[in-house]
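[job 0417] fold request received: Cytochrome bc1 complex cytochrome c subunit
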Amino acid sequence: MTRTKRRTGRRHPFVFFGLLLLGLILTGGAYAAVSDDARARASVDANSQHTIDEGKKLFQANCATCHGLQAQGSGTAPSLIGVGAASVDFQVGTGRMPMAANGPQAPEKPPQFTDEQIAELAAYVASLAPGPVIPDASLTSGGGDAAKGAELFRINCAMCHNVAGAGGALTEGKYAPSLESTSGTHIYEAMVTGPQNMPVFNDLTISPESKRDIITYLKYTQENSSPGGYALASLGPVAEGLFIWIFGLGVIIAVTVWITAKSN
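[job 0417] inference complete; emitting structure tokens
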């Protein structure tokens, strides 16, 4: 009689240690990659001639076709003289530039350049003329007054971006993008540069401290889910009311019809 080995379902004792080691390797690798990018960007001296020259090479190879060899602009793209490092960091850092195709608005997509290359491009454009600079981390990492920021956001931003920062449609195929995953640095840069259809909120309109408060509020909304359950994409009371009218009343009518049919 042939004996068959019974499977007990127990794993080899070294499997656990192997999985633990694999997890540590993957975590360490991801951390190292992020740290390398951060160190590479921090090591870039925006004021050095070498950085500016490298940025100029990148610009002429990737941006000059539309913006001109001297960033003077053309019939298809605006001049970049005076837009500052903040505008480049926002547009290139969010992947909006270079554009994949002409359209009503440049959509956000994965960046096409490394952090070091973005810093070099920003340094070159900043060298052409004075403009908004990349904000300090003390203004973009939170730590402000979230309640005051919520009030400022409702007054200045919610009519386009929605009170929860979920975004919204504009005219002619344009839209205010969602802010649910946007970094504090890019939010600040958008306020001082006015990309796409967004107005410019300079320091006289909204002070740097108030901008920090707005970022603090948005970070709070990013990190805390809706306490009311399913948020319906945070589109507001109109969407919620429409949901109740269509689905809520529909269920009531369906139950009424079912009760009437059963009684007959």
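[job 0417] notes: The beta strands are 168-169, 175-176. The chain has two domains: 25-134, 135-226.
[job 0417] exit 0
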